[in-house]
Amino acid sequence: MDIRRLREGDSELLAATIHAAIAEEEWRGRTVDLTFLEQALRNDSCYYFTCLMDDAPVGYLCAYRFPDAPGGGYHVYLQSIDINERFRRRGIGTVLVEALKRACIADGVDHIWVGTSIDNVAAQKLYAKTGGKHVETGMEYVYELDGGS
How confident is the model at residue 135, as a pLDDT? Predict the structure, then answer.
């Protein structure tokens, strides 16, 4: 298992990862725009991690950093984790979240926030297992980090 943070110049790998991770029936005629992906990868506030198994992409994590204007510091919103169905339940999600947490600490991030649906039990277990604290007001998890301290 090889986890990589994608950067400028990695748009083709990100596109391949997205195609590998998201089931064909979910595409509904959409396509991946390499120019758009390259712009996102140039933005240091965007976090894209890919998981490769035997050099083939099987999953990814996408998150973005934003300033906490009232409190100072930075927060990250974990937007999505998608893993090819054949590779689920192998710890890939855990490794991706841990990679994001390390990157966020290095970037001085105070919190990672992620929301999920009430019926997504697998995601809830993943977030709890990786240190996310359930927010009682909804289906949200928060990771408190030492990045801003």
Answer: 79
Is pTM, for the whole model, over 0.85? yes
Q: State yes or no: pLDDT of 65 exceeds 60.
A: yes
Are β-strands 46-53 and 109-115 bridged in parallel, bridged antiparallel, or unpaired? unpaired
**Structural contact between residues 110 and 73, judged by C-beta atoms closer than 8 angstroms:** yes
Structure tokens that stand for 67 in this block: 């300033």
Q: Which domains does the chain have, with CATH numbers?
A: 2-144 (3.40.630.30)
Q: In what order do the strands lie in the sheet with 56-67?
A: 2-5, 46-53, 56-67, 74-83, 109-115, 140-144, 133-135
pLDDT at 35 over 60: yes
Q: Where does residue 101 fall: left (phi above 0), alpha (psi -120 to 50 degrees), or beta otherwise?
A: alpha
